[in-house]
Write a structure and sequence with these properties.
Blueprint lengths: L1 E3 L4 H14 L5 H15 L3 E3 L1 H10 L8 E3 L3 E3 L2 E3 L10 E4 L4 E4 L5 E4 L6 E2 L7 E4 L3 E3 L12 E2 L3 E8 L2 E8 L13 E3 L4 E3 L4 E9 L6 E8 L1 E8 L4 E6 L4 E12 L2 E10 L3 E3 L1 E6 L14 E11 L14 E3 L3 E4 L10 E10 L5 E8 L6 E7 L2 E6 L3 E7 L3 E12 L2 E8 L5 E5 L8 E4 L11 E9 L5 H7 L3
Antiparallel strand pairs: 1-2, 2-4, 3-37, 4-5, 5-6, 6-27, 7-8, 9-10, 10-37, 11-26, 12-15, 13-14, 14-25, 15-24, 16-23, 17-22, 17-25, 18-19, 18-24, 19-20, 21-22, 27-36, 28-33, 28-37, 29-30, 29-36, 30-31, 31-32, 33-34, 34-35
């Protein structure tokens, strides 16, 4: 359900919908949600996932005791609205200097305007806010892969709408060809995307399975050959082409719903190369480049190559490479909402395998010297107090993570209790004492870098230290 502001007709509609959502209950959570929706809509914002919001607070009632609570649902250009406190002075700033795509509730790709937070539904039926670094897509004409693409003589290409995007369904019309020859592939040539030695890149695209075929392959020419096969029926992958210039290769398939799948391959360059062409085709197997039998069909859309170890949201290109700017979501004046002596910080996020350093949440003085941060590096999860004292929590789970950090700052040191996903609480003392905490950054550091590159479902801050039992309880998945 989406509720919008700015029109007088919406006031009556809003009241009617609120009655249906919240009923006649005067419980704390229902009253909080009702006041929240009224504030957002009255301010010209939009609310999504009202039922999800109600359900989340039913399952996590202790969050209503937080001094600051964000469950992504209310937004407008430049603003992400917190649930608590219920005032616009505490709104998070949302900055992104370009448009950007999200997966909406209908599982369709949707372009969001400059500075509009992206409430994304790719990983869940309920919205989470997508926080990504800047990225550039070097595969041209990804928005409509018919313009300036060439279809081989042994294939036919027809329009297929994939996640709401104009993709192409490729059908084998003549036997005896394959991805390795021009006649058996759909190709975009005349590319010029530089691959730097030592850097990691990800190629990705969306595949739509048909009733006749489920195996799809890509071939990238960058002086040397690179290619991978993806069987979306059983989520298996394989290498179609290999060369020493492309190292540390890893392939992934993520189901998106509606028989659509995100296919990715990540690799690290051992030598500088330039991507000059990108081709795709239905193939016999994940390690076999031959085309399947005549009349076999499979569709694809939105191909992408970008710097980094994971595929980010789709960046549509036409005749030139396009850059999407980074998301920056923060509150600069929050000292009264943050525990300066006793406090608790909570976050729920989705995490994918990613070698880069990433911030989940940063609570700071506005400088990295005074901070409490939850972050990852490679496959390891950390909590850090001030500039250098880090608690290593070991490997983080791929997928959902709930983490809560309780702390007490006293006498130049900080005692802490940490729980993640309901596990036993980790306790200890750090010989540092953050001071002047007044800034909150969701999914980034104080300078809006080291971005999460994933989705956040909730964040909460308390001006009291919750008990160990409470910390463990609130992090149960």
């Amino acid at each position: 359900m989406r509720l919008r502001g700015n029109t007088s007709n919406n006031i009556n509609e809003r009241q009617e919908r609120l009655f249906k959502i919240l009923g006649k209950s005067s419980s704390n959570k229902n009253t909080t949600i009702s006041r929240y929706i009224d504030r957002v809509v009255s301010d010209g914002g939009t609310v999504e996932g009202a039922m999800c919001l109600l359900d989340y607070l039913k399952r996590n009632p202790q969050l209503l005791n937080a001094s600051y609570l964000v469950i992504p649902s209310g937004y407008k250009a430049g603003t992400l609205y917190p649930i608590l406190p219920n005032d616009n002075a505490s709104n998070l700033s949302s900055v992104r200097g370009t448009t950007a795509n999200r997966t909406n509730r209908e599982l369709l790709l949707e372009s969001m305007a400059i500075n509009v937070p992206r409430l994304d539904y790719q990983m869940s039926a309920c919205p989470s806010v997508l926080v990504e670094p800047a990225a550039t897509n070097g595969i041209l004409n990804s928005q409509d892969s018919s313009t300036s693409w060439t279809t081989g003589a042994n294939l036919s290409s027809s329009l297929s709408v994939v996640q709401g995007v104009n993709g192409r369904e490729l059908e084998v019309t003549t036997a005896g060809s394959g991805l390795g020859v021009v006649a058996g592939r759909h190709q975009r040539s005349s590319l010029s995307f530089n691959l730097v030695s030592g850097s990691t890149y990800t190629i990705s695209f969306i595949v739509k399975r048909t009733s006749t075929h489920s195996i799809f392959g890509y071939y990238a020419l960058a002086t040397n050959d690179l290619g991978g096969g993806f069987d979306v029926s059983n989520l298996t992958t394989g290498a179609l082409y290999s060369n020493a210039a492309f190292d540390s290769r890893a392939r992934r398939i993520t189901p998106l719903g509606n028989e659509e799948f995100l296919c990715e391959e990540t690799f690290t360059m051992t030598a500088a190369r330039t991507l000059t062409s990108f081709s795709v085709a239905p193939v016999v197997g994940v390690t076999n480049t031959n085309n399947p039998s005549v009349n076999s069909r499979i569709a694809f859309a939105a191909p992408q190559i970008e710097l980094g170890a994971v595929a980010t949201s789709r960046i549509f290109t036409v005749a030139t490479a396009i850059t999407r700017n980074a998301d920056a979501i923060s509150l600069a004046s929050a000292s009264g909402l943050i525990g300066q002596t006793d406090g608790t910080i909570y976050a729920e996020v989705n995490l994918r395998a990613n070698a880069a350093e990433r911030r989940i949440i940063s609570v700071t003085s506005g400088a990295e010297a005074n901070r409490i941060i939850i972050w990852t590096l490679g496959t390891t999860l950390f909590v850090t107090f001030n500039a250098a004292t880090s608690i290593n929590l070991g490997a983080f789970p791929i997928g959902a993570l709930k983490i809560a950090v309780g702390y007490t700052i006293s006498g130049g040191s900080t005692t802490h209790s940490i729980s993640r996903n309901g596990a036993a609480v980790v306790t200890g003392t750090s010989a540092t004492a953050p001071t002047g905490l007044n800034q909150i950054n969701l999914g980034s550091n104080t300078t809006s870098s080291l971005l999460l590159n994933d989705r956040m479902s909730a964040a909460a801050i308390y001006t009291s230290r919750l008990s160990n039992a409470e910390l463990a309880s609130m992090t149960v998945l």
